[in-house]
Structure formats: C-alpha cells, structure tokens
Amino acid sequence: MRFERSHTRKTAFVAVAGSLALLASACGGDDGSGGDAKGGDAGALEGRGPITFATGKDTSGNLANQVAAWNSQHPEEKVEVRELPESADQQRESMIQNAQNKSDAFSVLNLDVVWTAEFAANRWVAELPQDKFPDLSKMIPATIETAKYRDKLYGVPITSDGGLLYYRSDLLQKAGVQAPKTWTEMTAACQKVQALPEAKGMGCYAGQFEKYEGLTVNFSEAIDSAGGKVIDESGKPAVDSPEAVKGLEFLVNGFKQGVIPAAAITYKEEEGRRAFQESKLIFHRNWPYVYAKAAEPGSKIIGKYAVAPLPGMSGPGVSTLGGHNYAISNFAKNKATAVDFINFMASEERQRANVEKTSQAPSNAALYDDPALQKKFPYLAPLKASIEGARSRPQVVKYGDVTTAIQEAAYAALTGKKPPQQAITDLQTKLSSLITQ
Ligand code: GLC
Q1: Under CATH, what is the fold of the domain 37-161+322-388?
Q2: Spatial CB neighbours of 219, under 8 Å, sequence gap ≥ 6
Q3: Mutation probe of ligand 1 site: the residue of 84, 87, 112, 387 with most atoms within 8 A of C-beta
Q4: What is the rounded distance in angstroms from the CA atom of residue 173 to the CA atom of residue 196?
Q5: Atom of ligand 1 minimally distant from the CA of 159
Q6: How far is the CA of 28 from the centre of ligand 1 (A)?
Q7: pLDDT confidence of 235, banded at 50, 70, 90?
Q8: How far apart are CA 286 and CA 291, in angstroms?
Q9: Percent of the chain with pLDDT over 90
Q10: Is any atom of ligand 1 closer than 6 Å to the C-beta of 113?
Q11: Domain residue limits, the chain
C-alpha cells in the first residue's frame, strides 16, 4: 500500500509540475529561454563578503548557533540574520516586497516549499547550478522536487517537514488505549482519557486553524486523509468530492462537538504547541520541531508524550509536505558567499547538529536511518514515513491567491459561516478560475 501510494503521488507531482509550467508560460511569467533576464546569467553567482539571511521567526531556537558556527569560520563573510514574523504568509509578503523593490537587503532567503514557483517565475531568486551543491545527492528526493521549477533548481532543501500526531502517552496508557489510526479511534480515545480525573477539562485535539498558511496545511490533510484531494494528477482543481466534504466535516464537527476546543481557531504552530505543553490537549497535530520544544524547562509534559503518524478517516492519514529551501536573491551582492553558506547549512555535520538540538526534520536522508539518532529520537521513524507519504500543496506561480482561496473556504466552514459542502463547491469554482485560465 505504501509503495503504491508514494508512486501515485510522484506521478501526480510530475503531472502537476508539467501543467503548472504551461500555466506559467500562459501568464507570461517565464520567457522559456532559460536565461535570467532581470538578475544576470544563471550560474553567475559571484562576489564575496558579508551577507544577510532572511528567515521566519526562529521557533527552533538553534539558528543563532548554526550561524555563529559559520561566522566564527568566516570573519570576512559574516551572515547577519534578518528575522521575519512567525506566520508564513507575513514572511512571504516581506520577501516579495523586498524583491519588488529590487532591494539587496536579503541575500539568502529561507523559502517555504510552496513559494518556489512564484519566486522562480518572477526571477526573484537565482537559478542554482546543481553541481555547486554536492550535498543534494544525499537529500530525500521529494525535498529536492520542492526546490525545482520547470526542472531547474532554485533552492537547496535544508529542513523538510511532515505532520505528526503528538499524544499524551501517560494518559493513553492509564486509560488503556493505543495511539489511534483513525479519527473515530481518536475521539473514542479522548472519551476514555477525559474520564480520568487528571484529564478533567482537557481538549481532545487541535491543529493549526488560524486563517494563514497553516490552515491550508490542516485543511489539505483533512481532505487527503478522507480520500479526497485538492488538485488531481494533472494539476486541475478536484476538491469538489464527497470525500473532501467528509474530510472538512471532521474539522467542522470537531469544533461543533467540542472535540476541537474553540480556542484552536486562533492557533498557529506556537499557540498549539503551548496548549499541548501546558497539558490542555490530549492530541495535537504539529511539525517535528515540537518534539524537542516540549521537553524544554517550563513544559508540563516532559516525558509524558509520544508521536504517531496522523490519523485519517478509515486508516492512517496523509500529511502535507512542508519544509524550507534556502535560495539566493537575484538582487543580492556576494552571491558566491551565499552559495558557500548554503552548502555549510546543507552539510551532514550541520544538519546533524540541528536535529540533535531542535528535532527539526533534516533534508539529509541518512540521518533518519542512523541507529544512534533513532535511539535518541524515536520520532525519526514515523517522521520519515510521514515525509515520504506526504502530498504537496499546489505548485503554482499564483500560490498566494490559491492559498488565500483555500484559507477563506476552510475558515468560513470552521466558523459556521458556510456549510462544508458549499465551502467546498465555492472553493472548486474559485480554484478553477485561478488554476486553469
Ligand atoms: C511549516 C512548514 C511549511 C508550512 C508552514 C505552515 O513551517 O515547514 O511548509 O507552510 O509550517 O504554517
């Protein structure tokens, strides 16, 4: 089953990428010449000296260490971090604003995997010659695909991301229940756990439901985990299906019936993590970075949680593929230094150091199979499965419009403004106008 699934997904990706290329040329976003009209020739990554690194708020807490390791070895080519907001959408806006001003304020950009097409088609980031990045051959293939646009490379995967189900292992054990594989099993487990005196008042489940990129992720996972899909193998919107409605209903009914606490409508990653580690949730969908964070001083659940693959409608669920690629701004000076810094961060040594401190998902494949690391971090095995089985969000140049449409539909349903079926039908209409013009 697993092989069949991942094969289907790969085929889907190739098809999607192909149709998006058509879309891009239809929009005039790419002249197809392979040259680099606004930012100089591809491959001309020259200039050495200080650079900057624009990245979302470092919720891992380890970026400063990684950058300090580079800076101590490269006193003439120091990297200065430009920390952007925590929300993915706000990071994107800030990077786009800089690019539109042709500003050289950001040299290396920490791009979310969903932004590659938009940044590449607009020539905001430089095309990267693969032979300048030796560690690429060691990376999980799916992560490299996220950094490509029209078969060319525009970023180097540094972290991947897959959704995980965090759960209170102490309470599940006490209630005599196993980690759930389905949503029904999860709600049944909650009822048993909530009957324990120490679990009084705890919420059953929460993911990220604030209106931002995280909602697109959680909505897509609910649809995919019910057997639906947001786009089909050829890249066309295919969200209007009974399966997708059922997936959305899981979230909508969850809010209505109190399985998902009302406060979760304001949760991004960090709000959810805090609720989980303040012992307010039995189950929590989040990314791997939470594994290390929830073990830090101040957490109320140290030694009391574990992770499992996401549950689904009638069996294990499907994660959305997340992660970040480092790209080079076309308007940056000192691009040769940028290349070296990216290689430094992509190296197995730096990736290992980062996993050990932060539990973020590395892009380097071998680290997941390292017996010593697996022993120390039991989340690595479910995480690799989550990433390998993960489904991509639409890889489109107009990703900003597409994600806004998804967020609006999902939010309207979760807040009771639209019945799930109507939200899904309206989304299909909207996506069709954005994707097949
Ligand atoms: C994580 C993922 C990223 C996703 C974001 C949503 O940072 O790595 O791909 O878009 O969460 O909040």
Answers
A1: D-Maltodextrin-Binding Protein; domain 2 (3.40.190)
A2: 248, 251, 406, 407, 409, 410
A3: 112
A4: 11
A5: 8
A6: 28
A7: confident
A8: 9
A9: 87
A10: yes
A11: 37-161+322-388, 164-320+397-434
